[in-house]
Amino acid sequence: MREPQRVVDNTTKPQGVIVPRSNINGLLVAFLLAVFSQPSLDGIAGAEDSPRVVMPNHHGAFFQKYCLDCHDAQSAEGNVDLETLSFDLGTLQSAEQWQKILNALNSGEMPPEDERQATDEDKTAFLETLSKQLVAARRLLADTGGQITMRRLNRREYENSIEVLLGIKVDAGDLPDDANPGGFDTAGGSLFFSSDQFEQYLKLARTALDQAIVTSPKPKIQTRRIEVENESNRRVQRLYRYHEKGFERWEEWQASGGKSPTEFGFADDNEAAFRKLGWDRNGADFAHYLAREETQHGALLTVNEPNPQVGLVIPDEAPPGQYRIRARIGVLGDPDPSRTFIEIGFRGERIDSSIDLIACRKVNAPISDPEIVEVLVDIPILKKPLTVDVGVNTGKRVDIGERVIALRQRMPNVFKTGFALRRDSIAKTGANIEPALWIDWVEWEGPMIQQWPPASTQAIFFDDVDRAKDADYARAIIERFAKRAFRIKEADPEFVDRLTGMCSSEMDSGKRFEEAIKLPLSLVLASPGFLYLREPASDPVPRDLSGEELAVRLSYFLWSSPPDDELLAAARAGELTTAAGLARQTSRLLDDERAMEFVSGFTHQWLQMERLDFFQFNPKLYPEFDASVKLATRQEVYATIGNLIRSHGPIGELLKSDTILINDLLADYYGISDVHGPAFREVTVPDGMPRGGLLGMAAILAMGSDGERSSPVERGAWVMRKLLHDPPPPAPANVPQLSRLAGESLPARQLLEAHMEESQCAQCHRKIDPIGYGLEHFNAVGLWRKTEQVMVRRKAKEYPIDDAGTLPDGTEFQGFFELRDRIAEREAMFARGFVENLIEYALGRPYGFTDQDLSDAILTHGEQNGRTLNTYLHALVQSKAFQQK
């Protein structure tokens, strides 16, 4: 057998290849591209001659007798062909197929109830032999399977690593995609590096260093307060005059006795009518706003026009950094509580009042005694000034972009739904909806400086500022920086020599030392030593990781970032080579707030939460499911799992729980009272409320919709995949439409029951759909409903909901609460699914047949220790699989 290729670490031994396309020295790029041109996979070679594990041929009679009517080569129901199945279990593919057969027979799933059943004698003999052969196959394949592929940092890890190294935040969105369909962004097979990506990494590294290395004088902390009525009233007055002048010209045209509208400044009749309509819709409303007492010493936040938001500009000359944003706000009257939230974000480049949300805060104080709302915001380096022309006589918008903070009343979609709400209100009452929030003033303070020069600069230029800025200093900086960047490996002297020479060349060309050093440091950040999680494997057999290597693996598993000084010190002291020492450090990492990087990264992918962003939720149907609520529902899932880890809670709490973790915004959405503040906290679920556990979370339920209607199919399939650990097969090609009822305005259950009349659909949907029926009392955005509303000829028709169903094994349930109870009884299968995904995430490769002994051991340990999430995490870290390369 040919030994698989391995990464050749040439960081220290560059080879010259001339590459013509570059904006820096060609030989420099050649040296780096030569490093990157090496293969990015390493493996473990297996033996030439392996013993065979074979299922005896006489067991083919079992298939012939009980299985081939549905699973021969021609029928292959469920894409299962047993007629051509190899009886040799010596490959992963074959062994995994036989494992599925064992699972199906053990669970009673096969043969189906309406087919001939195997006798106890036949079934016992078959299963006994198969079980023994699978154990033998697992031992055989464990010698060649389960290798951990060397991989580069994914985007999350890159951003975190840069922040640890330089103390600044970067956006890695333009870096190579981490896509691994159906898997995790830690999978080594998809995290490779090619030479054409080098300049992307080099450019981002240079941007990071430009921000990290600061040589300017210490900026003063400034505070600037804006009396918002000045700008708001000017803007409303300007728009009022625009509409007024248009109406005046329209009146003149109407009185002219049939003259052309062009003589009055209109392009045609349509523009004239449009300007008249603008006055009718806006004139009185704008005048009323300007005449109100509250707008003489503050600004009212209106639904749509005339004043939907207030902007706060951070000027170009203000340095990047962290700023404190404050606003004095009060509630006007006694509005619906859902309207008393203030949204704060960066103002978008569009003119539709959109913002990139930073925070959402509940305002409780009345206008007579306003409260101060405060948030911290990271203001980036100004990329370019932004101006947008927004129309005749309204001037130019210069108050938009990445340095403009906008404040607005929480709204579903201010430009669209807000426009409709305002239009309807004016049509009915002659006035806009009464404002709910009033702002007295807004101010910014910053940059908030902890030390100067910044910690990022001091971390690079570690020595006295008066030290001679020469080649010796450059070498010391590069050596120290590279050691930190490479995590546990010092750079080779030859590598440092080359980078030192580059710094000298930059200085010879006239650059200051602080500028010249950026090139070699950028190259360190674009080198394999930084970009790859390296665990050299020179032997063809697994080896134990060194203490430092284990520290790196542990910290990237639980923090998605490099190990801190305490973890490295423990590694160098030999503590990680003992079970107690490793457990102590694992607990410390899990108790640290940085463990939320694991929680969010793992959970998002494990539960397939990307589906929450697959489609737009219809704001007309679900105005309450706005950007702030959507974000809060996502955070609820992360907060719940994070809390279970910190509190050593059992995994079963994810299936059914008497408590939930919510904040004030989500409490308002769910209809739960007496929850105050933006922080998530544990709250007891009120009696009879359908919350508690994943199935009661709005984000999970919203994922099982298309933004318009709930989908029993999507919800049922998700439950099978994630909660029951019984994933349905992929939908076959050319899936037929919903049978004879396609296009009819009917409840979801009636449509799907007709769908099951199609024979090619029934096999899977008879398992999937009945689970989803149990969740039909939740609408498309996860709110409880009594009836299903279906649009029939533009009118809403209410249908009763039948939420009775069955689980794949035939267990019946009546409604959501019984469904949740029946699923909670299957906690062991849920735990197995969690552990298998955890193994895949932690080891950076697909979970396979050879991992079953590992998952069994982790699950057994969990059974003995309360099935807490911590128990599973600790057991995985303590395993040989995690501690070996």
Could you walk me through the main structural features you see in this protein, from its secondary elements to its overall organization?
The chain is an alpha+beta fold and 885 residues long. Among the domains are: 57-141, no CATH class; 224-446, no CATH class; 604-825, no CATH class; 829-883, no CATH class. Helices cover 41% and strands 11% of the residues. The protein is built from 31 helices and 19 strands. Strands 2, 3, 5, 8 and 12 form a 5-stranded antiparallel β-sheet that branches. A 4-stranded antiparallel β-sheet has the order 4-11-6-7, with no helix packed on it. Helix 4 (92-107) packs antiparallel against helix 5 (120-141), helix 8 (228-254) runs antiparallel to helix 9 and helix 17 packs antiparallel against helix 18 (565-572). 39% of the residues are buried.
Quick summary of this structure?
The chain is an alpha+beta fold and 885 residues long.
List the helices and strands and how they pair.
Blueprint: H1 26-36, H2 60-66, H3 68-71, H4 92-107, H5 120-141, E1 151-152, H6 155-166, H7 198-212, E2 222-227, H8 228-254, H9 269-291, E3 299-301, E4 309-313, E5 321-331, E6 341-347, E7 355-362, E8 371-379, E9 388-389, E10 396-397, E11 404-409, H10 417-429, E12 437-446, H11 455-460, H12 471-485, H13 493-508, H14 513-516, H15 518-525, H16 528-531, E13 532-533, H17 547-558, H18 565-572, H19 579-591, H20 596-606, H21 627-646, E14 659-662, H22 664-670, E15 681-684, H23 698-703, H24 712-723, H25 748-755, H26 759-773, E16 787-792, E17 795-800, E18 804-806, E19 812-814, H27 816-824, H28 827-843, H29 852-864, H30 869-877, H31 880-883
Antiparallel strand pairs: 1-13, 2-12, 3-12, 4-11, 5-8, 5-12, 6-7, 6-11, 9-10, 14-15, 16-17, 18-19
